[in-house]
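Sample entry (113 residues):
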Amino acid sequence: MNVNVAIAYSGRDEIVWALRALLAEHALNGTPLEQLSSTLCAEDIAGKLFTTGQPDPDLIIRTSGEHRLSGFMSWQSAYSECYFPPVLWPDFTHEDFREALETYHHRQRNFGE
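Predicted structure, serialized as C-alpha cells:
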C-alpha cells in the first residue's frame, strides 16, 4: 500500500515541473523540439512526476467535507475514486478510514469506460 500525504503541494506545479524536467533531458540529448513534440506521449510525462514508479491512486480521501480535489494529484487521479468525509484531518479516525475503505469496496469501477 502506498500512502501519499501532500504538504504545500500543487498538482499544476508538479505537471509544470515534470514538463520542465522532460524538456531539459531532451535538450541535453540534443533532441529537436519538433521531434519531441511529434513523439511526446502521456507515459513520458508520467515518468517525470513526483510519484514515478508508484501506481495511480485507487482511492483519494479528501477530509473536511469539501467535494473537490483542489488540484491534488491532477495527473494521477484521472480514474481514482474519491471519498469526502466531513471531518478535518486532525479528527480523522481509524473508524473514518475503515468507512472510507468500506465505501470504496462497494463501488463499481469502470476506469472511464
